[in-house]
Recover the amino acids of this structure.
């Protein structure tokens, strides 16, 4: 992504990823809090589709950041371990999000 280049690119990328991921969780909570008659209609399904799209957009911003973080913060001999731990944490965080949010 071109957002990663330039000054504060990594920070901007993480902020956009967190923002769209939070929006995704908010839309899912909104969709599940609707009355049952609204949830069964296409409006409820549309909200869930929007939530899925927000989650997909956040993945585009967040999936590339662990490699960049390890390249910026860690010396070369520790980058593989740092990148691996970051990807494990990213996967666990996404799994927890789907487990905790409806």
């Amino acid at each position: 992504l071109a957002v990663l280049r330039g000054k504060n690119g990594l920070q901007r990328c993480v902020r956009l990823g967190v923002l769209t991921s939070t929006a995704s969780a908010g839309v899912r909570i909104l969709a599940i809090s609707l009355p049952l008659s609204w949830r069964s209609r296409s409006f409820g399904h549309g909200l869930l589709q929007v939530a899925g799209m927000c989650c997909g957009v956040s993945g585009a911003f967040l999936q590339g950041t662990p490699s960049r973080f390890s390249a910026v913060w860690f010396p070369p001999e520790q980058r593989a371990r740092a990148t691996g731990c970051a990807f494990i944490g990213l996967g666990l965080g996404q799994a927890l999000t789907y487990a905790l949010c409806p």
Q: What stands out?
A: The chain has five helices and no strands. Residues 18 and 58 are 7 Å apart (CA to CA). Helices lie at 9-33, 36-39, 42-62, 65-73, 79-100.
